[in-house]
Amino acid sequence: MSTTSRTGTTTEVGTFTIRPLDPIEDAELLHGWVTHPKAAFWMMQEAKLHDVEREYMAIAAGEYHDAFLGSLDGVPVFLMERYDPAHVELVGLYEPAPGDVGMHFLVAPAETPVHGFTRAVITAVMEHLFADPTTARVVVEPDVRNTAVHALNEAVGFVPEREIEKPEKRALLSFCTRERFERTAGVTV
To answer: How far apart are CA 141 and CA 120, in angstroms?
Structure first.
């Protein structure tokens, strides 16, 4: 998969930029995020720094999975992963369609939450994914217990299809087409 950067997604909270993650340089920052109590659904609560480095070095070396660091006005605030569901994460769990792109995202823990921030992040993530003209549909598979992310996904156009059993969790398989995202989020990509 390509590891291109995208800049200049301006929202009500500021301007987001997205760049490829550096598994070594960014590991310490990510370690604090993925082990934070609010990141329980990321399933890395017990990870050590070297575990985070190893995980993201493997992603960087893989052909079908990429990781990105998102910043708001120059300050890192979220992690995004993009993957090809025909080759990783969802192999054998659904029938991938041409143009399907899988996605995970994690917002950095904040001492003072900002109303609308997480929705602005997922909107920037979706704009980034749909900036690739070959992306027709974004696929997500969050834990079925993560009701907050289900509501957020629906707010930007995801439609739940069904629950699936993954090795690490019971997940809600959901899809968002480019057209549905543009209509629901009020964004043209």
So the answer is: 20
